[in-house]
Design goal:
1% of the residues are buried. The model has no long low-confidence stretch (mean pLDDT 82). This protein is mainly alpha-helical. 62% of the residues lie in helices and 0% in strands. It starts with a helix and ends in an 11-residue tail after the last helix.
Length: 81
């Protein structure tokens, strides 16, 4: 599935497009994540770096789980006297 999400939609064959559509229809969270992945790809290929802060805000506002939410921040270092 990662290959389907990271390739440009026009680069997918008809069978792959249908399979991806089916997989995304079964899981709204996965469909939302796929949209963010597509948007990020458009930023890269279109050299639209100025839209990155808005994209990050949108992802954060979605409350989608991600690496930054799945892993707690590291514990602070303990200093010794």
């Amino acid at each position: 599935m990662a290959d389907w999400l990271t390739r440009h939609p026009t680069a997918l064959g008809e069978e792959d497009r249908a399979a991806l559509k089916d997989v995304l229809a079964r899981c709204p969270e996965r469909d939302t994540a796929a949209g963010y992945i597509r948007d990020f790809g458009e930023m890269l290929t279109g050299r639209l770096g100025t839209t990155l802060p808005t994209w990050i805000d949108s992802v954060d506002a979605s409350q989608m789980p991600g690496p930054h939410r799945l892993c707690p921040p590291p514990a602070p270092a303990i200093s010794t006297p």
